[in-house]
Amino acid sequence: MIQSSPPRFAILVFSALILLWTALLAAPFSSRTGEVTPLADALFTAVSAICVTGLSTVDMATHWSLFGDLVILAGIQIGGIGVLTLASILGMTVTRRLGLRQRLLAAGDTNPMRMGRGVSESQAVGLGEIGGLLGTVAMSLVVIELALTIMITPRLMMEGYDFWHALWFAFYLAASAFTNTGFVPMPGGLEPFLTDVYLLSVLGIGVFLGAIGFPVIFALYRYVTGGSRAHKRIGLHTKLTLATTLIFVIFGWLAIASLEWDNPATLGSQGTGHTLFSSLYMSVMTRSGGLGIIDPSDMNGSTLLVMDMLMFVGGGSASTAGGIKVTTIAVLFLAAYAEARGYRDVQAFGRSIPNEVLRVSVSVLIWGATIVLASTVAILHITKEPLDIVLFEVISAFGTCGLSSNLSAELPDSGKYILAATMWAGRVGTVTLAAAVAATSRSRLYRLPEERPIVG
């Protein structure tokens, strides 16, 4: 299966891990009370951890035992860096070498378009650079989470936690931020820190670094440390990811601030400085962070719709974030601009983008919208809740964001299963799903006559 259908192999391994984590979390020793966790809650938490989503149907601070917390923490680390990437890192560590098959698997994990396709090697990361990318993944995971832990621990000790509890909670928060999960282990969540600029800034930086993607971190690392001329050039993927991410962060910042400025339940009761900071923080969290400080159920419907759009887009490709990815939406906007200007090619930063990338971007958008629509209709029918609340929760699940309107905990078991499937589809990725479904399709050895339908 690895050779004939890498996408199916990836989905199989990913799903097997979810089943294993479900069994572990359902066991009596995973709950603090020693009771068996209901299957729907155990499965939902396992999917939320492996898919680095952050939605929960139980109180994360009080329900799980230390063993349960360790299982969840291991799940978000595995889900954050990618199953096949982790397997390649472990294989490289044990054998001290990286074979072609491992390179192809890791390349497919960072770019699903390469799974089972004879695509050009004009990639953001070439096959010869996969070993360096894997090293960057491992080092960035360790270094960034360690740095975040060191910065968070003293702040928690100032809040009254002893050293060991502060260290544990700090590491948990660091992993949750960098992997863009959004789980909070402390009783009361982030409520004591709603106006803490220092702690929220540290968490925001962790989420931003996780959301831009490992290929971008790798490219920036090579640009700073590399001596060769090739490494002194920042590639198109990195430029598109950083530019689009900053555009969406600024757009979300201004939109949330302006729409919630006079809402006394959210930002209206804060001063100007805290209003601007809180809106910027929430904009960063829509990248897929999920460590929210404002209850979405108190927000205006217009703000929820803006956040829906931001969560649907998500973060960078091959990152710990979810969504359809910022490069996908960037390619679509560039294609619309090229069409409006009458250009034959989609261009950006002095480079031409192949039509295959545009077709995949359109496919990702349609698949993503279809999944969100189907899940929204199903949960609307089950719960009879307002559309804006249900749509927010569904898009948060699909984008593996974790911001919640408090609907997840109130869902019946059928709704939990639907939302879990939405998280699974959002994290596996629409490109991988499409490639897995199309793995058995036969290639045509002929072309049909062309005829142009009327569009637009």
UniProtKB/TrEMBL annotation:
GO terms for biological process: metal ion transport. One of its GO terms (molecular function) is monoatomic cation transmembrane transporter activity. The chain crosses the membrane at residues 36-58, 70-94, 130-151, 163-185, 197-220, 240-259, 309-336, 357-382, 417-439. The keyword Transport applies. The keyword Transmembrane applies. GO terms for cellular component: plasma membrane. It is found in: Cell membrane. Keywords: Cell membrane, Ion transport, Membrane, Transmembrane, Transmembrane helix, Transport. It is a multi-pass membrane protein. PANTHER family: KTR SYSTEM POTASSIUM UPTAKE PROTEIN B, TRK SYSTEM POTASSIUM UPTAKE PROTEIN TRKG-RELATED. This is TrkH family potassium uptake protein.
